[in-house]
Each structure stands twice: as structure tokens, then as C-alpha cells.
Amino acid sequence: MSDMIPIPLDAEGLQRIEDALNVSYAVDEDGTHSLVGGDFTLSTLLDWYSGYDESKLIHEGTAETFMGEVEMTTYPEPVYHPNDLIRVLVEEIRELRTQLGKD
After folding, report:
1. Which of 9, 25, 77, 101 has the fewest beta carbons under 10 Å from its own?
2. Integer Cα distance of 8 and 26 in angstroms
3. What rounded mean pLDDT belongs to the chain?
């Protein structure tokens, strides 16, 4: 069973989304990745709303790619995708436009 919660569109939820959109990755000289401008990316925020738990990953094996060998995993439960966020924002905008008599 999934622990997904609805994507919140209240003031705090919108601020989290905006903050996540302003984050970027930095890579230093030794190849270490770090976040700049915030604590989470949009992907990690959506994972958190989904109830994502890395310990539930199912390891399927490895595959050879142009970047070398990569580990292949699947996740047994649904997780939010950026398209899901866009859908709830479009729905919210439509509702607000209807309330304002613009449609």
C-alpha cells in the first residue's frame, strides 16, 4: 500500500514547490554533488509526497550504458511525476477561474 498524500497547494505547499524549482546541483572538482539554493529538488519533493522509501527498491540487475554499467531497479509502489504536479495545478487554476467567473 502506498503512503502517497495529495500534493498540497496551500501557501506552504506552493512555497515548497517554488523553492524546489530554484534548486540546482553543483559538482565540485572531486566530483561530489551538492544542492545549491535549497534542501530538495522537485523530484525529491515529489518522492517525499509519494511516501518513497529507498529501502523498498527492487534490484533487477545491471545494464551497460554509454556511461558504463548502471544498476537497474524498480519501485513497487506509485510515485508522483512532475506531470502529476502540473495536472493538479491546472485543475486548481480551472477551479479558481470558475470561481472568479472568468470561464
Report:
1. 101
2. 28
3. 92
Those residues with Cβ within 8 angstroms of residue 30's Cβ, 6 or more apart along the chain or in another chain: none
Strand ranges for the chain from DSSP E: 24-27, 33-36, 58-65, 68-74
Q: Give long-range contacts, CB 8 A cutoff, 24+ apart: 90-97.
A: 92/9
Where exactly are the structural domains of the chain? 11-99
> Does the pLDDT value for residue 83 go beyond 70?
yes
C-alpha cell belonging to residue 86? 502540473
Locate 53 and state its grid cell.
522509501
Question: Is the pTM higher than 0.85?
Answer: no
Q: What confidence tens digit (pLDDT) does each residue in 84-93 have?
A: 999 999 999 9
How many beta carbons lie within 10 A of that of residue 75, not counting itself?
14
Q: Which amino acid is present at 48? A: W
